[in-house]
Amino acid sequence: MVYIQWDFILDYSLIVSPLTGLTKKGVEFVWSVDCEKAFVELKRQFKTADICRHFNQQLPIILETDASDFAISGILLQEHRDGVHPVGFYSRKLRTEELNYDTHDKELLAIVESFKAWRHFTMETLTPVKVLSDHNNLKYFMTSKNLNRRQ
């Protein structure tokens, strides 16, 4: 059931990180305090998660992204008459090579991967997409003269 619902849970990858380590080949299954906390939080998220609305190409889109030391996430939101509501959630753990990225690269990766995840929505919208990120390091891309291939 979790696999089907993962894209409706905010920061799913961050929450389940202690649990996914238990599924690796050759790893002894030890239920830790962190695993229990993750499990309890996942159950709480299932009970209290925001109800996602259907996408409407005529409504304004907001893409809210974030990155941590080991995961990236994004929320696709739309502005309705009664407020801003989620259309979907995206998150994933960082790959081994991505763990070494600088903070501004992780934040940019969250934006790019979120756009990829919701390409079918963002390409058909009739309004510009507003991107919200909580990191000032993204200003680096506006001032840097030498960007690498990843950027």
From TrEMBL:
Pfam families: RT_RNaseH_2. Gene3D superfamilies: 3.10.20.370, 3.30.70.270. Residues 31-124 form the Reverse transcriptase/retrotransposon-derived protein RNase H-like domain. This is Putative gag/polymerase/env polyprotein. It comes from Planoprotostelium fungivorum. The lineage of its organism: Eukaryota, Amoebozoa, Evosea, Variosea, Cavosteliida.
